[in-house]
Automatic annotation (TrEMBL):
Residues of the ISXO2-like transposase domain: 133-279
Protein name, entry field: Transposase zinc-ribbon domain-containing protein
Alphabetical list of PANTHER family matching this protein: DDE_TNP_IS1595 DOMAIN-CONTAINING PROTEIN, SI:DKEY-17M8.2
NCBIfam families named in the record: transpos_IS1595 (NF033547)
Amino acid sequence: MRKSKSPAFSVRDFFARFPDDEACLQHIMDVRFGMRHACRECGVEATFHRMTDRRAFACAACGDHVYPTAGTVLEDTRTPLQSWFYAIYLFVTTRHGVSGKELQRQLGVTYKTAWRMGMKIRELIGSGEDFDMLQGHVEMDEAYVGGKRPGKRGRGAEGKTIIMGMKQHGGPIRTVVIPNVKKPTLRGVVLKNVKPGSVVSTDELMSYGLLTDDGYVHGTVTHSEKVWRAYDLRTKQFHSTNSVETFWGLFKRSICSTHISVSSKYMDRYLAEFTFRSNYRVMQNAMFDLIVSRV
């Protein structure tokens, strides 16, 4: 999923595009309905004009009202639309994520409001991701994030959340929270996300042994022997999991530095946020519009 890089979306660009709530409401109307469309009431393809006393537009043919924010996360919000849009802007222009405290400082709202806005935006980010199945050469790796009980370290430490990543060479990364690393669990994730016949690179975890039987060309790298990239004569491919591990490194550092910690209850939302940002990072303007379109 290669994308051409778009110009940087600066703060000045943002406020030029969305100087007030009116501009934000107009943008939502354009994205959801368009200023000219078939009226749901009279059926006439008409233009719609802004009403001055409410967040609505009226059909030029029959006067029926259209509320652009109805049925969205913005329907009953008392927070200015521009603040919502600026929060989305912060999400797409950062590399390490945005904490509730940062939103509180930037938007001048209470922490409770900032936290709720952040979670709603993460829901929007994760609500519409639907890639085609990964194919070609795909790297896979799992990671453990979060809790650690005193006296026990490493992958099996109690309280950690297990996450699994799959990165197509030259394409997108797909991530998911999983309950364990047993063979049936990994098999279900792989079959759902990776096209059979693909070349798959993993570490030496025994649960990945299922891949060959399911029609994948499987190669491994033996991390326990400090091997990070290896050429497989059988598959005639170099195998590594470096791309997925690079993503894990950024994700873990961001959790520790920006968010301090993340509950396993909400891990999927944060993971979706970072996955989305990784897949669309060269398209800041498009990333912003894509999130707003999901409102």
